[in-house]
Amino acid sequence: MTQAATHRAIEAVWRIEAASIIAGVARLVHDVGLAEEIAQDALVTALSRWPDTGVPDNPGAWLMTTAKNRARDRLRLDKLHTRKHEQIGHELEALQADVEPDFVDALDAARQDDIGDDLLRLVFTACHPVLSTEARVALTLRLLGGLSTAEIARAFLASESTIAQRIVRAKRSLSSANVPFEVPRAEDRGPRLASVLEVIYLIFNEGYSATSGDDWMRPALCDEALRLGRVLAGLAPAESEVHGLVALMEIHASRLHARTDTQGRPVLLMEQDRGRWDLLLIRRGLAALDRAHAQGGTLGPYALQAELAACHARAHTPQDTDWPRIVALYDALAQVMPSPVVELNRAVAVGMAFGPQAGLDLADALATDPALANYHWLPSVRGDLLAKLGRRAEAQAEFERAAGMTRNVRERELLLARAKTVAGQ
């Protein structure tokens, strides 16, 4: 194998194994920042040795062993430095404390949460609410996605220095706040799990509909979010909302190839060639939705949104879409996740099910909501409904207003094109 091929193999292994290695080391050192440094040291060692010795049969295990050995060396060195500054009596006490009686191990085992995987601990730590949303996203992509600072910066159209500072500050914040490397206890898991799911879905959404820039989508981010969601579903199989989020992402991801034309221009849902939808991803999404239902209880926001996506996935043509059921699902979603954005989407569904005037009445009622003041989809939805009612001049103005509000180049082009079309130009 050439040196270049070896380096490519190392990069591939690192992308797959990085999260597990960092998680395994973090359990030993109880510091996510230090764990990442030690894991990176193991990677540097691989880069220097493998071109000469060849890639090991189990490269992930080699990296994990090397990283854990370095962690243990670091812990021994830290203990040695500490002991040099202690009295003999304190040193003896410390040595005795190193050998815990069996009942302590049993007590610790009894205190273990019902989910005790290192990787799950890393997920909950990287997505801790003590961090800002931007910091959680960057740290999650770095630690769990194995993305480099440059890749994260490219994905979110930020400078490398900005992302690097964000990651450094996030690790410092976790350390200074003494955030434990653990899965929250069952009674505390709900809010923390919500933060984890929020971060993963934010990553997916930025890939599915890029906030700004020249590209309509960034599929690599969708892939990373899907991978994280699948991992989380394997680690927390009893959590309905985890399966709901995976179902939602799988079904949405099934449309990626149909969401742009050959020139990279956006294609809206009702105009997509459904023959280009990925049937395997749809099947995976519906299976995940079944697992969400199997947990029992009331469906949460992600599972309800997955049900909405499933309505479209099951419709072979746009005309087959069950719009009354979609309206009912939005009614349920508004109960568990009240939001003006949910109400706006419900207005679209009502317009499809019961006529454009009914939808426009609901959209108009949202026009003064401050949460939607800069939300370009509000004038876009109004433009679509006005066009269906034959109010072309008003529709054109709304599409142009929406175009002026979006920061995505492709989206702006789409909205301006719709403005021209509705005006008969």
Topology:
Elements lengths: L2 H27 L2 H22 L5 H26 L3 H11 L3 H10 L6 H9 L6 H11 L5 H7 L4 H17 L9 H23 L3 E2 L5 H17 L4 H14 L25 H16 L6 H14 L8 H14 L3 H15 L1 H10 L11 H12 L3 H14 L1 E2 H14 L3
Parallel strand pairs: 1-2
Give a structural overview.
This protein is mostly helical. It is built from 20 helices and 2 strands. A two-stranded parallel sheet has the order 1-2. The protein is elongated and about 80 Å long. The N and C termini lie far apart (60 Å). The model is unreliable at 91-116 (pLDDT under 50). Residues 25-76 form the RNA polymerase sigma-70 region domain. Residues 124-174 form the RNA polymerase sigma factor 70 region 4 type domain. This is RNA polymerase sigma factor. Residues 192-293 form the DUF6596 domain.
Count of distinct structural domains:
4
Biggest sheet record: 2 strands, parallel
**Unreliable spans:** 91-116
* Distance from first to last alpha carbon: 60 Å
Tell me the number of strands: 2
The SS-based structural class is: mainly alpha
Using only CA atoms, what is the Rg?
Answer: 25 Å
Mean pLDDT over the full residue set: 88
What's the tally of helices? 20
Order the strands across the largest sheet as they lie in space: 1-2
Shape: elongated
- Kindly state the percentage of residues in helix: over 70%
Note the beta-strand portion: under 5%
Order of helices and strands: HHHHHHHHHHEHHHHHHHHHEH
Features:
single chain, 425 residues, mainly alpha, Rna Polymerase Sigma Factor, Chain: A, 4 domains, two-stranded parallel ribbon, 2 strands, 71% helix, elongated
